[in-house]
Write a structure and sequence with these properties.
This protein is an alpha+beta fold and about 200 residues long. About 15% of the residues lie in helices and about 40% in strands.
Length: about 200
């Protein structure tokens, strides 16, 4: 995906407010062998781009003053209640250096699983994103998790799926094998009640 940026020489909160009133968005690009650069973006262009999932999980072609640089979105500041982009951070990408980023997880085919069709259970999903590391050329736009083989009461962990080639999960603390999905009876159902611990009987007088 490609977007256009322009060098920004004026800094400060007053200058940023003037940019926003003119339909522009202040931003910064950093990393690589170059110094951080203050840039500005067209608000409408970047607003629509940021509403596309793949824009957040792709190596982007930033055209800055006629030169193309590969970058990743690192942070976005939104207005607290209006549909306005206030600031964007980008990181330069080196093809030879691994990148750490968040990748969306797409859960598929839960309704086709035996857990749902035969056992009448509900399949709940785990994290909507995973932290991963890989070379830029191996960066996937998303990770698909097929739930069609889930059976009643089963659990699916990260170790149960195959990540794309060259992609490694970056754990948080000791959570090296996060739970991605589990099948269970709907809350309030008879099966759910049976699974709940029995209440203690009242003590004899």
């Amino acid at each position: 995906m490609k977007f256009t940026a322009t060098s920004r020489s004026v800094q400060g909160s007053s200058a940023s407010r003037r940019l926003r009133r003119a339909g522009r968005v202040p931003a910064i690009v950093y990393g690589g062998k170059s110094n951080p650069a203050n840039i500005e973006l067209d608000h409408n262009e970047i607003y629509h781009a940021l509403n596309k999932e793949e824009f957040h999980a792709s190596i982007l072609d930033m055209e800055l003053d006629g030169k193309i640089e590969p970058v990743l979105v690192r942070a976005v500041q939104w207005h607290s209640y209006r549909p306005l982009v206030l600031h964007v951070d980008f990181q330069r990408v080196d093809a030879s250096q691994a990148v750490n980023t968040k990748i969306p997880v797409h859960y598929l085919n839960a309704d086709q699983s035996p857990a749902v069709k035969l056992a009448g259970q509900v399949v709940t999903h785990g994290p909507a994103e995973l932290d991963i590391t890989c070379l830029p050329a191996n960066l996937p736009q998303f990770i698909e998790v097929d739930l069609s083989n889930m059976i009643g009461g089963s659990r699916l962990h990260l170790a149960d799926i195959t990540l794309p080639i060259g992609v490694k999960y970056v754990p948080h603390g000791e959570d090296t094998n996060p739970l991605l999905a589990q099948a269970a009876a709907p809350k309030g159902s008879a099966a759910d009640d049976d699974a709940a611990p029995a209440a203690e009987a009242p003590a004899a007088e």
